[in-house]
TrEMBL record:
Organism from which the protein derives: Schizopora paradoxa
Domain DUF2264: 17-367, 374-643
Pfam families: DUF2264, DUF2264_C
Highest taxon above the source species: Eukaryota
Protein name, entry field: DUF2264 domain-containing protein
PANTHER family documented for this protein: LINALOOL DEHYDRATASE_ISOMERASE DOMAIN-CONTAINING PROTEIN
Amino acid sequence: MPAFASASPYASNPIATREDLAAFLTGLLDALAPYTSPGGALIQLGHTATHYDEAAAQLEGFSRPIWGLAALLAGGGVYAGAERWVRGFANGSDPEAAEFWGQMRDKDQRMVECSAIGFSIAVAKEQLWDPLPDAAKRNFEDWLGGMNDKQMPDTNWLWFRVFANLGLYRAGSPRYNEKRMLADLDHLDTFYAGGGWSRDGPETVCQFDYYSSSFAIQFAQLVYSKLMQKEDPKRCEEYRRRAREFASDFVHYFDTEGRAIPFGRSMVYRFAQSSFWGALAFADVELPAPLTWGVVKGIQLRNIRYWTKQPGAYNRDGTLTIGFNYPNLNMTENYNSPGSTYWCCKSFITLALPPSHPFWTANEEPYPAVLREKTTVLEYPFHIATNLGGHAYVLSSGQQCSYDLKQSAAKYGKFAYSSAFGYSVPVGNGTLPEAGYDSALALCDASGPGEDEFWRTRRQTLNARFETVNGSGVRVLRSEWKPWPDVEVETWLFPPTESAPFWHVRVHRLRTGRALRAAEGGFAIYGQREDGRALEPLQASNSEAFGTLEDAGAARAASRAGVSGVLAMESHPSRVGKVIRLDANSNLVAARAALPTILSEHKPSDKNVWLITGIFALPRESDDGPEGARAGWLAEWKKRPEISLDFLLPSV
C-alpha cells in the first residue's frame, strides 16, 4: 500500500515532557501564521460555511489557539509569535478598524470565543493585556463587556460569559460585571445532576457528553476554582469536590492506548477530550484513588500522543483538518468552521503549571491495573462502561440532543460507542451502505412500493433506566423508542461477561402495525485487506485470515483493525448475516469501513417479535503492535454468550 506522505507532521514528537508538549503547541501556532490577517485579528483556514457569519468564523480561528498560547505564557514559556495575538486584540475590538470582529448580538457565536479571550487575560495579563495602548484597552474591554446585557442559550454557553468577566476582573476593568457573573454561576449550578456530573442544560435536558467534562463544564469549573478560590472559596471547593467524584467515572472513557471514546457532538475537537485531566492538575485537585499524578499524566499525554500520530488530523502544512481521524465534513455540526478544531488547545493547560508541579515531576504511569477488565455502571449519563473486550466502550441509552442537531441519532442514539472502532454517520438515507447503521437497529417501512429505501433508528429514547437481572446481579440498560406511531421497540443492553468478554448482547421486543425490514449492525471496522483492496469473502469459516464471512445467522469481518461480528441468537427464520461495505467517509475512525449486519423481515403483528443479537469485537492489541486481532480470536468467536431472559417473563 502506498506510504507516500502518509505521516503526520507531528509524529516524531514523543510527547513525553513539558518541553515536548510546548514544541507541539509551537508547531500548531506557527502553522497558523500564513493564514493570519495583516492586523492579526482574523485567521482564515478555509472556505467552508457555518450557520454564523464569516467574520465570527475567522474570529474563531483567531481565538481558539489562545487556550494553548495563554497557558504557555502563564507557565513562563515564550512564543515569538504572541505579538500576532496582541495586535489582533487591538484591531479586532476596534470599531473603526478593517478587521473589527463586529458587535455582539443575542446568542452570538462571538460569545463562545470570549471564553478563550477571557481566560488569556486572566492567566497571561502581563503578556497579552498590558502591552496594549490605553485606547486599545478601552476598545477591548468595551467589546468583551458587551456580552453582559445580551441573551445567551441556556447551556454551557453561560460559562463563556463567566470567563469574559474573569478576564475583565483580572484586568481591573470597569466593564467587569460581578452581579452578572454570579447570576450566571448560580444558574449554571442548577445544571448539576449528581455524582460529579452536570447536564448541558436545565433539568429537562439529558445530555452528558464531552461538554459536561473536557469541552466546557468540568473544565470551566476547575479553572474557575483555581482563579477565584480567594474570592469565592465555597463554590470553588464544591467544584473541586465534583471533579474528584467525576474523575472516577470519566476515567472509563479512555483506553490503555490513550484513545477516548467518540460520543456525541463536536468530535472535531479531538484531543480536547482529555483536557479535563490537565484542568485537574491546574486546579491542584486532590486525586481520588486509584488515580495518581502519574496516572493522570499518562491518560492525558497518551491521548495527545495518539493524536500527533494521526496523519489525517492535519494538513501537510501542520494545520488541523476538519474531521476526526481524517478530513470529514459529513460528521460536522453547522457550527464547525475550519478554526473550530483548535478547541483542542484546551489540552495544553498543563503548560501553565511550573516544572515542579507533581503532574510534571511524576513518572508517566499506565492505565490503572485495577480498572482494567472491568464493567462499570455510570448512572448519570445512562452508560455501562467496559474494557473487558480489549477496547473501552459504553453501552448507551437515554441521552439525546435537546435541540435540532445534524445526525443526532448517530451521535447519541446508538447502542454502543467504542474507542477503537468509532461510530459512523449517515452520508445519505436511501440505502444501508450510505446510512452507516453500526451499533444500531435500523427499521424501514416495507408496506408499499418505494417505501423500503428509507430507514429509521433510535433517535429519541423513552423511559431509559437500569435494571438488575433477577438472581444474577447483572445491571442492564432498558429503554423504549417509537420510530413510527404504530411501531414500538423496547431494548435491553447486556454488558459483556468474564466468560464471554468479547461479546455484548442486545434484546429487542418489537410490535409493529406495518411490514418492516430490519438491519442490526455491530461495530464498523476498517474494511480493507493487507494490500489496501476491499476485504473479500473467506472460503472457510475456521480461517482467521483477513476477510468477511456471511451465513444464515451471523456475519463477521477481520482486517488489520481486528475483528467485528454479529450473531442472531434466536431462531427467527428471516435473519441472515451480511457484511455491508459502507460508503466512504461515514465512519469517524476508518474512512473505508465494513459493517457486519443481521438482516430480517417482519410482518404486521400485535404480538411480540423478539430479536436477540450478540455483538462480537476484538481490536488489534495496539497501534504499534501486529496488525489484526490477536491469534486465537476464532475460539472466542465460537464462545456464544449466555443470557437468561427469565426476568422478562411473562412477557416473553
